[in-house]
Specification:
Radius of gyration: 23 Å
Bound molecules: adenosine-5'-diphosphate, magnesium ion
Number of helices: 18
Distance between the termini: 48 Å
Shape: globular
Length: 534
């Protein structure tokens, strides 16, 4: 197996240090005072992450929002609901999904394990005793589609492989996350912080922009900061799933809907040493205060000892804690990487959950749709048309970068022009891809089977702009930076009807130019907000 770096950086927190590229000027004192107010705001409003030792610090953020083209923002929002629908429809086309992943699974055990569960629960007859179990067709998707603006360098023209790309120019999709799409709640808070900064410290904000070379902003218009209701919409998606489950399943002995659903829960599957707890807790508190729904937080390892199925009238209900707590919805904030499954017990409980009647967010098939291999397979001509209308296809295809399986043509192009490619394994969480000169090196090492586990992607070149980045250690660094826009989507459907399909807000992450990777939890990027410009 080629070196797939299983550095699950959705989990690990490296300390964030950016190089200072601009010397501090006369504005330094005022900026330091603004910084102190910003740090207080993050504390007072919970814009916080934990360090490894458990201590909370401010989330790494930009001091002021970065400018971002309004047109791109609007177009990215416009496709959110289409991507939601696409994920759901592809996830229900299990034979197609499994066919696409055949070669990938041969070179990637983690994908293979997911496929085994998918086959067992959704394709093969369930084993004796569970054959008659009622199947849950309601799926909840809390997705996030990530984009970068593409400003192609002249040398891109030399890569003939790209000549047929329809997604040239404009903005391109980096990836589509279908499991554990994080930072929704903290992005909501970041937007509120930036609104506060711009409105409360208008003069200082303008000076901040000037200090990083942006002289175009001589007046602040906080309407240019789009509001984002991530917390509200993501948790409403979960609440809708909960209510539909409860209405159907929670009945008394006379088959009447039960009024009291206090002993029913939404289960958050989390890492034991999670550092991004605030981001998750905010969704939990919204569910509690707004929807009167209680959340349980458990790791997969804990669940492997405490979760069981109890069958009532053919409905395989999921319970924890000696069958005392019924789980209506399972929300995975873990389970996206191999180290969530240290033993077979974690895989067994994943299978148990998949078989149960609880609404999964995501189902195993949804998770597989988020694989980079499927992103590539969906870009093949004629495939999107299986799932979407022609109008929808046009909108979506515009933002597809060049995506390639590893064959003679793509490998040759990547060896000749490695600076124009990213080599990606089927992993989530950051820190796994290969860039530039590492690509030929890796390609040469791999066997044919191992190559099946990777895809090649056209490298996106976002235009750099300077940013002021506040680190977790309270330093402000001024650096040339690149931004990545994420648009969340919330979707609830059963294959026949769409019950909930919403754009669930945005996330802007900004990283120092020259850094290949881009995650916030992994320490590569900081949270930002888009200040929309023409
Ligand atoms: P992961 O699932 O690990 O988040 P991504 O595909 O999002 O994988 O890649 C991680 C980061 O690498 C992205 O956030 C982005 O900054 C960078 N990246 C990924 N694909 C590309 C690309 N095609 N061009 C430029 N940068 C990319
Ligand atoms: Mg990503």
């Amino acid at each position: 197996m080629a070196a797939i770096v299983q550095d699950d950086t959705k989990k690990t927190s490296k300390s964030f240090e950016t190089p200072v590229v601009k010397s501090e000027g006369t504005f330094f004192k005022e900026r330091e005072s603004l910084k102190r107010d910003v740090i207080d705001w993050t504390s007072a409003n919970g814009l916080l992450v934990r360090n490894k030792d458990g201590v909370f610090t401010n989330c790494p953020i930009t001091l002021i929002p970065s400018t971002f083209p309004q047109k791109v923002y609007v177009e990215a929002c416009d496709v959110a609901m289409i991507f939601n629908r696409l994920v759901d429809r592809v996830s229900r086309d299990v034979p197609w999904l499994l066919e696409q992943l055949k070669d990938t699974a041969a070179g990637d055990d983690f994908i293979m394990k997911q496929i085994q569960i998918c086959k067992k629960v959704h394709v093969e007859e369930m084993e004796e005793g569970s054959k008659t179990w009622k199947k849950q067709h309601l799926y909840l998707g809390l997705n996030r589609s990530d984009y970068m603006i593409h400003d192609p360098p002249p040398s891109e023209k030399d890569v003939s492989l790209f000549s047929s790309n329809e997604g040239q120019g404009g903005f391109l999709q980096v990836e589509l996350n279908t499991i554990a799409s994080s930072f929704g709640a903290l992005s909501n808070k970041t937007c509120a912080l930036h609104r506060f900064v711009l409105q409360r410290y208008e003069e200082a904000s303008i000076e901040c922009y000037k200090s990083i070379g942006n002289n175009n902003i001589d007046r602040i218009d906080s309407n240019r900061l789009p509001t984002t209701n991530n917390i509200e919409i993501l948790s409403t998606g979960m609440a809708e799933a909960f209510k539909r489950y409860a209405k159907e399943v929670c009945r008394d002995e006379n088959n009447q809907p039960k009024e009291n659903i206090q002993k029913k829960y939404i289960l958050f599957i989390v890492q034991e040493n999670e550092t991004n707890t605030v981001d998750q807790r905010m969704l939990e508190y919204e569910l509690f205060y707004k929807h009167n729904i209680h959340v349980l937080r458990r790791s997969l390892t804990n669940l492997s000892k405490t979760a069981e199925i109890v069958v009532t009238s053919n409905v395989p209900k999921l319970y924890v804690d000696n069958k005392t707590k019924e789980i209506c919805v399972v929300y995975f904030r873990d389970g996206y990487a191999p180290d969530a499954y240290p033993t077979n017990a974690e895989w067994d409980v994943r299978e148990l959950i998949e078989k149960s009647y609880a609404v999964k967010c995501p189902s195993i098939a949804y998770q597989l749709v988020g694989a980079k291999k499927i992103q590539q397979a969906l870009s093949v001509k004629g495939v999107l048309e299986r799932y979407l209308s022609s109008n929808e296809v046009i909108k979506i295809r515009k933002c597809f970068a060049g995506l390639y399986e590893l064959n003679d043509d793509s490998i040759l192009a990547a060896i000749e022009h490695p600076e124009h490619f990213v080599l990606k394994p089927q992993r989530e969480g950051g820190g796994n891809n290969f860039y530039g000169k590492d690509i030929p090196e890796q390609l040469k090492k791999m066997s044919k089977v191992e190559r099946g586990a990777y895809i090649l992607m056209q490298r996106i070149f976002p235009p750099p702009q300077n940013a002021l980045m506040l680190t977790k250690t309270g330093k402000v660094n001024s650096a040339k930076a690149l931004s990545e826009l994420g648009i969340y989507g919330a979707y609830l459907g059963d294959g026949k009807s769409e019950y909930f399909n919403e754009n669930a807000g945005h996330l802007l992450r900004t990283k120092v130019n020259g850094t290949d990777e881009g995650g916030v939890a992994s320490g590569y990027a900081v949270l930002d907000s888009p200040y929309l410009v023409m």
